[in-house]
Amino acid sequence: MYFRIDLRWTNTQKKEVSRLFDLDSVLLEGVYAGKKEITEKNAQWEIVKLNDHLVELSKVIKTLQVRPSIAHDVFMVDDQWIKAPGEVERESVDFGVNRFTDVSVFQYREGVARFFLPGHKDAKRVFLSGSFNSWSTERTPMQPCDSGWVVTVKLRPGKYSYKYIIDGRWAPDSFNKLKENDTYNGDNSILYCYNMIFRLRGYSSAKQVILTGSFNNWNEKELRMIPYKGSWLLPVFLKEGTHAYKFIVDNVWITDPLNKLKRPDGSGNFNSVVAIGDSILFKLKGFQNAKNVVLAGSFNGWNTGELFMDKTHDGWKLYYVLGPGNYEYKFIVDGKWMIDPVNNITTGSGDTQNSFLSLKPNYVFILDKFADAKVVTVAGSFNDWNPDNFIMVKKKGIWTFPIYLKPGKYTYKFRVDGKWILDPANELWENNEYGTGNSVLWIEP
Predict the structure, then answer these.
(1) CA dist 310 to 121, 239, 266, 281, Å?
(2) Within the chain, what is the greatest distance between any pair of CA atoms?
């Protein structure tokens, strides 16, 4: 008997699993505590961690009252409770391009994805299951049509993994070349819902046109564009933020003639730029006599010759588009590096000290009752346990640090004037290799 446990489940979901499948609450607590084996009601349960989110819970059944399960069989249950239909899980990636052998099997337009499974006319029931419906086995039934099965799903731009369930048997999409290991000796199909179409008009005599940019580390071979009615096209998913790019036409690099937004690349040339998301205003007051001021940070690879700020009546400014996340940055005033004087949240110290920006933070670390401390930092699995990187800010005796964290499990501690402590306000913790324990934080999708 096997159960797949998602470590991101809420307490309500855990209680519902326990009720539906008669799993002892002590057993589930052992799973979330990281135990590898648990004895419960004279049964020996084995626990295997499949990835950061999933754990497999299994035990041997000595006497079978029914036929043995066939590989890829599905235990069909009413799983509507897993996640509300309006919630959609997208996997975090910088960019993506689909690779279908038949373009008719997937179409995406105006937020609606159409899945088409050719054939299987003798099947009685077909379901679509994936990250967009929490891998539900019943929530998304497909409808029969003349040449197969079809269903439409409302999806936002992003990356999704999926499979078909054909009369109780899981199957990846045979028309999709993009696959990832499903941790069960099989594969999940992968697709991208696009939010950007790159287009290069003309060049009909060109043999090959490549799209390359900051989103794929300027790979010169990866993204081949498609000739279409006198133009070259390539639909792409891009994460929120600012992206530099160029076209390579028969080995000649060119900017996008249709895009007026161009920025220097720091090497004497220019790149075309596309931005997705909301603009952030970076400002630096004063320095009216400076010849130039440059913004540099983790969001542009610390390029010192790209983001030249505009002079204003009282200082310098630059609008820049960034997606949700954590960023470090500095200003460069006539060649001299400096942190943002109006931002009191910083990382590091000395020459490695940078201003810190968390855009759309979804969690705030808070430490109370240490008002007399001089320096408090927070460190954990989210910053490779760097004890000096994330410096907390004190306000009215309370230390805080806002941060954006992707869904999942994190371990952490506070460091108060050089002394490591657990989070006194967090009851969740687990042991570590030093026997001192780490606090545990779960960020839900």
Answers:
(1) 63, 26, 17, 11
(2) 86
Alpha-carbon distance of 243 to 407, in angstroms, equals 24
Mean pLDDT over each residue of the chain, to the nearest integer? 88
In the chain the first and final C-alpha atoms are separated, in Å, by: 28
Q: Are 108 and 100 in contact (CB under 8 A)?
A: no
What does R_g of the chain's alpha carbons equal in angstroms?
A: 26
| Separation of alpha carbons 422 and 411, rounded Å | 10
Name the pTM for this structure: 0.71
* Residue 86, SS3 per DSSP: coil
> One-letter amino acid identity for 209?
V
φ/ψ of 299, rounded to 5, equals -75, -15
Q: Which two tokens stand for residue 267?
A: 């090497």
Residue 302 scores a pLDDT above 80: yes
Query: Do strands 179-181 and 187-193 pair parallel, antiparallel, or not at all (unpaired)?
Result: antiparallel
283 with 268: CB under 8 angstroms? no
Give the integer Cα–Cα distance in Å for 79 and 81: 5
Residues in the chain: 445
Angle at 199 between CA 194 and CA 203, to 5 degrees: 150
Mean pLDDT (whole number) for 116-136: 92
